[in-house]
């Protein structure tokens, strides 16, 4: 009888430790933080949601650490996962990288550092989308990573074609985001238009493929 694979591995341990690293910075600057810390900003870079400094400094990193553990277990438990795929390893480092970036950024802004969050965060998101778009076409059918809709999960052909198309689309749109931000365009309309394109257009493409396959099967 085949033994189940262990869900605990080096990547889970290392990414969890990386998630905990911002706590060191939080402890160092905690005394200097204001009682209320902005944890969310609108499109203009203005704070629109606040939390206690204890939650911002320690609660958020710990929540992201827990989320990292959940993500690691979900990816490892996927019976169709391919551990050789680059996008699989990128996904496993996603939460740790975000925590290492977002927690210090949030606290530095609270300390009054002149950071244009309305530029920095959209640029980081755009670069992340570009990286994902580059690897989407290489993503094999699985249950946790990729465009998981009924038609891609039901057909390896649909999955492959949809992810090739989505990879091209995500790359083009993310480059448009980056160029727009470098030209000092407002990030809000860029993302309001672009993000639905990234989500909806591949789904429509997948459905058209599905309908085409159905039609060809009945002829």
Automatic annotation (TrEMBL):
Domain DUF1648: 17-64
Transmembrane segments: 55-75, 87-111, 117-136, 165-183, 189-210
Pfam family, one: SdpI
Coiled-coil annotated residue ranges, if any: none
Keyword Nucleotide-binding: no
Keyword Iron-sulfur: no
Top-level division of the source organism's lineage: Bacteria
UniProt KW keywords: Membrane, Transmembrane, Transmembrane helix
Family annotation (InterPro entries): DUF1648, SdpI, SdpI/YhfL
Protein name as annotated: SdpI family protein
Organism: Sphaerochaeta associata
Lineage: Bacteria, Pseudomonadati, Spirochaetota, Spirochaetia, Spirochaetales
